[in-house]
Amino acid sequence: MNPFEFSMMQAVSGMRQNSQRITVSAENVSNVDTPGYQRKILLTEPRGTNEISFGALRTSLDQTPGEQEYSPAHPMADDQGYITLSNVSLVTEMADMREANRTYEANLNSFQQARSMYTSLLDVLRR
Fold first, then answer.
1. How far apart are CA 57 and CA 43, in angstroms?
2. Are 34 and 85 in contact (CB under 8 A)?
3. Are the CB atoms for 68 and 81 separated by under 8 Å?
4. Hey, where are the domains in the chain?
5. What does pTM read for this prediction?
6. DSSP H stretches of helix in 1-127
7. What angle do CA 116, 5, 59 make, to 5 degrees?
8. Short-list 13, 15, 90, 113, CA closest to 55
9. How many CB atoms lie within 10 A of CB 114?
10. What is the pLDDT of residues 69-96, one digit of tens each?
């Protein structure tokens, strides 16, 4: 594999990972007011020492307990009349989403640069 292909594959892997991060954050934001909802976190693990992409993208639930609110009339209230609210922080999710978006754009720019250089190299070799 040539260095240009390697660079492009790394960029594609980064874009895929950050796209999934954005999806998970969007799901968390959409459930910020859902009682009992636990924030999802995207976990990544490298596939191997010589691999260029990340694999094993999976979600895990944040075990941080949500706030308790006294609301005895709520259908999800426990015996004492409390409901457990979502443990999603809107500020944290928006910051995570912004970071993932910027990282996605950086990987896209890296891919475009590598493609441009590869195309230029092929043009030079054709002469």
1. 6
2. no
3. no
4. 3-126
5. 0.80
6. 3-30, 90-126
7. 110
8. 13
9. 19
10. 999 999 989 999 999 999 999 999 999 9
